[in-house]
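Input sequence (91 aa), recorded before submission:
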Amino acid sequence: MKLSADSLEDLLYDFLSELIFVKDTEGLLFNKFEINISEKNNKYSINAKCFGEIIDRKKHQLNADAKAITKHKFEIKKTKDKYIAHVIVDI
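Predicted structure, C-alpha cell format:
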C-alpha cells in the first residue's frame, strides 16, 4: 500500500482509513505490517506491506467492527525517541 499526504497526521488518517476500506471491500484482516515512512519536499509518503487473511466468521470473532477513523481529537505527538498517536475509531 502506497500513500502520500501533506502532513504526518493526514498520512496516518489516510492509512488507517484505507485499512478499513480494504476490510470492508475485500474482507481482509491484517495482523502484521512492514512500514516505511519518508518525507521529501514537505510531503510525507508511506510504503506498507500488510499481511493478514480473509475474514472467517468461524475463526475471527469481531466484537466491534471499525467503520471509520474520525478527525475529532486526532493528533500525533513526537517525544524524544518516538511518536504517540491519539485516534478515535467509529464502530
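Checked by second reader. The mean pLDDT is 94.
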